[in-house]
Amino acid sequence: MKLTPDQQAMLDGEKGWPLQIAMQMLTAVGAALDAPDMIPVTSTHLVIDGTALGEAGRDFLERLVEEGGRFAVPASINAIAVDRTKADMTAEEHDQIRMLEACEKMGALPSCSCNPFIQG
What we know:
Blueprint: H1 5-11, H2 17-32, E1 44-46, H3 50-66, E2 75-77, H4 91-105
Parallel strand pairs: 1-2
């Protein structure tokens, strides 16, 4: 995959661990799809399913926050299966909220909608 000098610097870790790990993931997907290069994006939409991500996913997101990770483009978040007003959450529900908060700390809009385009 052909990378720009800036993209290569990210992949090499010159711009911090969060960007390095993101570029490792993106280039792996690109290689699997035989993509010749990256394409520009103007926004992203995240699915942060606590059941699928588990403790490892929660810890990964929180480490990204600790290491200064930020979304490079506007990011919205898909619906989550947790009532955020409920006082007696299960451990799994609490973990889902922690994942949501980690994404919010990195700049994501906690829209919690599968249709973020209708929310303005």
